[in-house]
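Support reply, case 0932

Customer input (verbatim):
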Amino acid sequence: MVLHYGDLTDSTNLVHIVSQVLPTEIYNLGAQSHVKVSFDMAEYTGDVDGLGTLRLLDAIRTVGLTNHVRFYQASTSELYGKVVETPQSETTPFYPRSPYGVAKLYAYWIVVNYREAYNMYACNGILFNHESPRRGRTFVTRKISRAVAEIHLGKQECLWLGNLDAKRDWGHARDYVDDYVLATGETHTVREFVEKSFAVINKSIVWEGEGEEIVGREKDTNIIRVRVDPKYFRPTEVDLLLGNPEKANRQLGWKRKVDFDSLVKEMVLADIEGARSNSEN
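Our regenerated output:
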């Protein structure tokens, strides 16, 4: 594998890389992908996630590889945002609720436009939440699994979260082209992810209170392990995302292989092992 220095905000750089490599496939996985951060860095998110996709497509055309490159855009379930139907499929109207979602919406449609205008092989994969032990530490699933690992090892006492009732279609990243929705077809709340994570270390969480005052206590010790902090709420929230992968199943034979419980267990155990290794070092 040969690595090249690149930047989705630099058109000249992208043209240079594509002309050097002369690829037959390009997968655009680059993005400022944290939804909450996109409210604080809206312009940067739009530049990288939206215009960055356009720059890559134009680099392909500039180098003269329009008929030789297959282009894949990593799209997102955040396009659906304030959902108008459940579950969401390839034909569900988009209603993004964050600068991240809006930037990705531009990227989605510019891919469609270049496919139709220049007959490029360019497609979107609308991926619902795909998690694994490699997930960034600021994303809620990894934040939960890492905190549970630290609590298990006596390094942390309490986990602070935002909206516990937000529902997401969480699948394993290893399970995840016309444009296809890839999802599990199941939805689980943040609260559920917390409960399943603590169950991995044989602890039960009992919820008390409502709204911002809700806490999760460890059943056996009565220690508060989970609290809500308003700073983790988004200015505009996406309450429910649930994907319908029927088209990918029918046309590609795609099926998810890792169920929700197995995903949570793998993430928590990986973080326990990682925390132990850091202690030993």
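We compared this against your earlier run and they match. Two observations from our side: The chain has a mean pLDDT of 92. The two ends are 29 Å apart (CA to CA). Please reopen the case if you see a mismatch on your end.
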